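Good day; I would like, with your permission, to put a structural problem before you. What I wish to show you is a protein chain and, alongside it, a tokenised description of its three-dimensional fold. Please examine both parts with care and let me know of anything in them that strikes you as inconsistent. Thank you for your consideration; the sequence and its tokens are set out here:

***
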Amino acid sequence: MIFPDEPVPGYPMPILPGHTSPGRFERILRAGHFVVTSELAPPDSADPAAVYERAALFDGYVDAINATDGSGAHCHMGSLAVCALLTRLGYSLIQQISCRDKNRIAIQGDILGGAAMGVANMLCLSGDGVQTGDHPEAKPVFDLDCMSLLEIARTMRDKSTFQSGRKLDDPPRVFLGAAANPFVEPFDWRPLRLAKKIAAGAQFIQTQYCYDIERLQQYMHTVRDMGLHDKVFIIVGVGPLASARSAQWIRSNVPGVHIPDSIIDRLKGATDQKAEGLQLCIDLIQQVKEIEGVDGVHIMAYRQEHAVPDIVSRSGVLNGRTPWHPRAYDGDATVQQHLEKIQ
């Protein structure tokens, strides 16, 4: 989407009244559009071309890209580095910040660093435990949790101070997000948890994978009754499943992911389970879009990022809208320099 004041990539747009960031992502949400976000799998590489190539898969199909921060407690290129590379091209990034690996001193520095590079969106996470990742012997930090991180980021933005009270010369102008999981017990507690995150500063929410529409509908019913849908933008996580076997493995081994038997049975009964997994994701998106209070979908296509354009196109979720991407802009030398590598 091109706004009338869309700048050359790398230069922020003006902050509109009622907005907290200059970012395109916040503008699209506040304009009432149903958004699509996705996650960039960070490379196990120091080659920037690997980041550019992965981001290019999403061109014209997503409104913002999450740069994950050691997801699953596995080591990859860091979120801040991915953001540094892609904001220079004009991409809308969601910088994920995990409390697992850094204390409040380092985290506040990363908030300032991300904002200085043009990152307008930050997702505040507690982080997965180190025992789930590839370095179980690592020492976890957890100096903060997602609630205290939200409060610190909001204080830096709105009061222009560090947590210590020391003044900032220029605050980070950021749109703050958090995660939610409506699909695990205790179910009654989940909307209350959401309310606490909103009170701490969350302006948008990205949920865990949704494979249970009935459970999501029940959650959203309570969210609407509490009036929370008017206070936060809710973006529901979806993703393709490669096979019934992989779905069973995820259900058993990935904390917080609920996959009903009916979903596994559907995959088992398919002649082409991978194709059925893609169709399942499309069906879920179309059902999620009809739920009142849901503002978008977050497509987590782990090791299937190449399928995101097909999922978005076939689901019709964008209603003919084409999100902005750097290959649609041919006037900036920095963009062209990196596009030559991508193409």
